[in-house]
């Protein structure tokens, strides 16, 4: 398997994970909220979960998947920024709100996603450099 294919797989895995998370909030906002210990207040609360969480997370996941398909890093970078901010928010909550039993999971999952994106980025950069070098030769 060549570097470009591996990079695409490394982008597709987190892209699908992020997209599926967004789809859960879009199609089952009450169930998704329950897993996060959130309680939406009526139709307005469900609409806010669909719109604010579902839509934005779907957009990020779709962008990462577009990067996997096109092999263009500019589509993957919003996902990396999203995951870094998510990690920062979890750490901030730990510091400001106090410890919770799930902090390791809350930091480990997005950290793993970020590492996959970084590994894919490095492989894609390397694959593009090799293509450029071959084209010059």
Please outline what is shown here.
By secondary structure, the chain is mostly helical. It has 5 helices and no strands. It has helices spanning 3-27, 29-35, 42-70, 73-97, 103-136.
Give the uncertain stretches in residue-range form.
none
Instruction: Give me the strand/helix succession.
Output: HHHHH
Helix content: over 70%
- Quaternary class: single chain
Estimate the strand proportion. Answer: under 5%
Please give the radius of gyration in angstroms. 17 Å
Number of helices: 5
Helices and strands in order, then pairings?
Blueprint: H1 3-27, H2 29-35, H3 42-70, H4 73-97, H5 103-136
How would you explain this protein's 3D organization?
This protein has 137 residues and is mainly alpha-helical. It has one domain. Helix content is 88%, strand content 0%. The protein has helices at residues 3-27, 29-35, 42-70, 73-97, 103-136. The model has no long low-confidence stretch (mean pLDDT 95).
């Amino acid at each position: 398997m060549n570097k470009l294919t591996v990079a695409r797989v490394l982008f597709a895995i987190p892209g699908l994970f992020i997209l599926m998370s967004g789809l859960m909030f879009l199609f089952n906002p009450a169930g998704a909220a329950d897993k996060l210990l959130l309680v939406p207040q009526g139709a307005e609360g469900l609409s806010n979960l669909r719109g604010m969480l579902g839509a934005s997370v779907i957009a990020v996941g779709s962008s990462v998947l577009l990067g996997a398909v096109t092999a263009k890093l500019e589509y993957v970078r919003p996902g990396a920024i999203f995951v870094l901010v998510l990690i920062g928010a979890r750490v901030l909550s730990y510091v400001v709100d106090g410890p919770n039993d799930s902090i390791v999971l809350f930091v480990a999952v997005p950290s793993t996603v970020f590492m996959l994106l970084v590994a894919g980025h490095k492989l894609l950069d390397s694959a593009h450099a090799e293509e450029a070098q071959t084209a010059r030769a």
